[in-house]
Design brief:
Layout lengths: L2 H13 L2 H8 L3 H15 L4 E4 L2 E4 L1 H28 L5 E6 L3 H16 L4 E6 L3 H6 L5 E5 L8 E15 L10 E3 L7 E5 L4 H13 L4 E6 L2 H9 L5 E4 H7 L5 E6 L4 E9 L6 H21 L12
Parallel strand pairs: 3-4, 3-5, 7-11, 8-9
Antiparallel strand pairs: 1-2, 5-12, 6-10, 6-11, 6-12
Helix pairs in contact: 1-2, 2-3
Amino acid sequence: MELRQLEYFTAICKEMHFSRAAENLCTTQSNLSQQIKFLENELGLPLFDRIGKRIMLTEAGKILLEQSQIIFEHVDYAKRAISDLKRMEGGKLDIGILPGDGDLLFDALLIDFHKTYPKLSISVTETMDVYEQVLNGMRDLGVTTVPVNPDDRISIIPLFHEEFALAIRPDHPLAKAKAVPFDQLQQLKMVMFGSGHQITKVIEAYCQEKGIALDTPIVTSTLSTLLSLVDQGIGASILPRMLLDYINHDNIVAVKLLNPTPSQDICIIYRKDKFMGQAAKIFIKELQSFLQSVMNHSGRSFRANGDASL
């Protein structure tokens, strides 16, 4: 059994069509059929049921497809490990983050990181599907909320516990309050992110628990617009306390919310069964260090109980 034969086999499984698979592989259909025949003869069982012009995987085919995917993951791991060994300072890193996290975690961090490690290539993508994209191998790392019942292949490094606060102009009557009950938000005009944003999803869940609805006449997709609307007194908003402390806007104050205090736990996730290159290891340490400096600036404690093996 050869890797090339397994590549041919998985290509056919992807298309469920011999001629289309042959086109994708830049080979002839007769060669493809011959290689599959060699595999079937070696294994002693057919891999496909041929029903007219259609094909379907047999039970033996399903087993071979599952094991082939594992084999190719291991081959990819070996290739990446060797490549990384040849160029310790180089490498590529694809990171998925929740919408809005870039404003706090990545704008300043990426600039400093690139200056320190100019040979590393980094791609950062905002998405609500961070967990799913890391799990399916699309992203090397993900910064997201701590997943519930994660897949056994997912490793989690806790980063910090994020509380949300009321963002409001300093001349508003509530600005001088030490804390505001969550119920009182329904009496305010609010400006918020759209319904697909992670922050909005968190706040909407708390609103449902409390049985209240917020008055949100203006919805935006950007943090700069949201801050401008609060600054101009158009409405109040709800944002991560650490973000508000980090931005330190002259005309916006953060007021604690109580009963409840909305919050979420943020972590780094990655596939433990995939090779983690130097780029990813370095970035995790730099992110933890950056967060520590932000926490120190805001006078809060930082949770850095990640995997010591990194």
